[in-house]
Design goal:
3 helices; 2 domains
């Protein structure tokens, strides 16, 4: 019975820890940015709208075109 609990805990850790590392990395990057939180939110909203427009034009377009938004300026790169 104890062995089953240990296996379940190890399995859960193996599944959830890689995602946790990604979240910690993103949070650490956001903490050291020189933009305000409001600026980051504005840029995220702009990025979401652009992705929505690209995907409504062509479903493969967000895969082929990379968009970076920094201080309300947009950079498109890709094919």
């Amino acid at each position: 019975m104890m062995r089953k609990g240990i296996f379940t805990a190890l399995f859960a850790a193996a599944v959830y820890l890689p995602g946790c590392a990604a979240v910690v990395t993103i949070v650490a990057q956001k903490a050291y940015e020189d933009r305000s939180t409001a600026g980051q939110i504005t840029d995220a909203k702009i990025h979401a709208r652009i992705l929505n427009l690209l995907s409504s034009t062509d479903p493969n377009l967000p895969i082929d075109v990379n968009t970076d938004v920094w201080r309300r300026r947009v950079l498109f790169t890709g094919a």
